[in-house]
Amino acid sequence: MKGTFGKYVDINLSNLEVKDYPIPEEWYGKHLGGTGIAARILLKELDPKIDPLSEENILVFATGPLAGLGIAGSSRFLLMSKSPKTKTLNDSFCGGRFGDILGKSGFDGIIIRGKAKDPVCVRIDNGKAQILSAQDLWGLDPLQLEEKIGKEGKNISIACIGKAGENKVMQSYLIVDNTRALGRPGYGAIMGSKRLKAVVVKGNQTKEIADMERLNKLKKEYARKLLNSPYCQRLNKFGTGGLTELNNAVGNLPTKNFQNGQYINASKISGEAIIESRVWVKRDTCPSCPIACKRVVKGVFNNQEFGPEWGGPEYETIAALGSNCLNDNLEAICLFNKKCNQYGLDTISVGVHISYLMEATEKGLLREEDQIKWGDTKAMDKLIDKIANRESIGGWVAKGIEFLTNKVGDDSFFVQSKGQEIPMHDPRVKYSMAVYYATSPKGANHMTGIHDPTPPHQELNLPYNSRDSWEERARIAGEYLHARSFTDSLILCALSSGLVDGEYYLLPLMREIVEAATGKSISVEEMLTIGERNQALLRIFAEKVGYRRIDDKLPKRFYEFQPSTGFHIDKKMLDRTIDEYYKLYGYDKYGPTEEKLKLLKIAGVNK
């Protein structure tokens, strides 16, 4: 398929072997790239029963067929592996320069196996790969590392771990160019376990394109449509933090460990507040993207500086370390964002753990020296340090949810699904999100499917979708899941690939762009089939790990009424909807039936 290099680079840290890994043309045809190709590689190469932190685990860095082509929203990449949190295949997507440069590197992705004897980094440079010593890099934070090895201009990008990853903290992630993050599944701990400090990419190669003239016209049209979208204009003005007050208005701003959905001081920590405050510096963006949704901030909190080199907080960080902890101090949130980037800590995960400990304090479950009260920003600051360094109660957090809740003695108010912390969207006011959180093998993930409500959808043949109706919920959630899964195979930014019908529905244009780049024509039906096929791969692996329908559930908190709106999840309705969802899409115990695999044209892939 055009638009690809046709191969990944396969790197073994144990025996220092580097070789090409050709991707079968059939895989490109059926999966395009991204999620699908990464999952096919791991289904073939990885034993589902291995320990995620063992030498046997494999990391796959993947691009899509549009990477490196200068298309808005296409500079992203993903990292897939067996997660130490969910114990099955999980993924994390990231923006910035890395994906764009990897798309020009001569490889469509990177496979990393084994475990180094001493700290190493991997360097990819225009079709060549090296394993280099990182003895002098171990212990450095991402900025220090970049200053040491990254002074080669803009045509280079670094994905690395900080101290949290080196210490194999379960909430650790990879930080990319200091400001972008591969968060959620705990992949920093996998990098640390492999003694892999960083992956550096450099490249300026070009892929063969089916119709470059048409592609250039279409990508300009795509950028124009984004610029004219009111949603994207708001993102440009206020960033994702602009969602804070909008979510607060409808009861979707997690507050006090999800006890409520509205925060009285939401306006103090919103995207609007950032623009109007003294911390505001400027906007930032990813290559070729006109939206410029990133914030850059500068200031001081608790006698510690946070500078523009660390970017600024997104909505998820604002809610996780703000409203969910009853923290209305914007400077504190900005510092916590900087420190999490510096340590390589996932802000959602850290925020959920801290809010759990705050509630545990309120319930009298913690010793005095371990207690942390709601909104105590100085204690939050110290606790982030303790988590990264595995000190005192921070060490409990670093070992993961099960260890922490056993120590505290009550897991009933920890909000998680399949071992992954709930992100900052409350399923009590978004019923599709309730289905995704409960059923996804990736655990709770807000980048899955659609966020309710949505108008009727002509192309996807879907009715009006309210936030709080179970009517046709299984089909609505499923079709939007498959549409999003399609864009995940292109690794197209969710903010620039609107799924909602109307002026901002850009998937028809995106399918034209894919055809111009790859030569592959994709109908609406095939688009949804590709998405469904790639979701099936994740479920196949999860079933091999041991997941079953009985594991599809939500935390107890979401069956409770939300005081601000009165909303709650009706457990019987959710279970009935999930059963309908399984029947509609051909799932059996957890994965797809043999009949479904034949319909998806991947029969035998689960052998």
Polypeptide structure, described:
The protein has 607 residues and is of the alpha+beta class. The protein has 3 domains: 7-202, 4-Layer Sandwich (Aldehyde Ferredoxin Oxidoreductase,  A, domain 1); 240-411, Orthogonal Bundle (Aldehyde Ferredoxin Oxidoreductase Protein, subunit A, domain 2); 421-599, Aldehyde Ferredoxin Oxidoreductase Protein, subunit A, domain 3 (Orthogonal Bundle), CATH 1.10.599. Helices cover 38% and strands 14% of the residues. It is built from 22 helices and 18 strands. The chain has helices at residues 25-31, 34-45, 98-102, 142-149, 163-166, 187-193, 212-228, 230-238, 243-249, 271-276, 315-320, 330-343, 347-362, 377-389, 392-398, 401-408, 431-439, 473-490, 507-518, 524-545, 571-585, 594-599; strands at residues 7-12, 17-22, 59-62, 77-82, 89-94, 109-113, 120-125, 128-133, 156-160, 174-176, 180-182, 196-202, 280-284, 294-297, 299-301, 304-306, 416-417, 420-421. The strands form 5 sheets. A 6-stranded mixed beta sheet has the order 2-1-6-3-4-5. Strands 8-7-12-9-10-11 form a 6-stranded mixed beta sheet. The chain has a two-stranded antiparallel sheet with strand order 13-14. Strand 15 and strand 16 form a beta hairpin. Helix 2 runs parallel beside helix 20 (524-545) and helix 14 (377-389) packs across helix 15 (392-398). The protein is globular, with a radius of gyration of 22 Å.
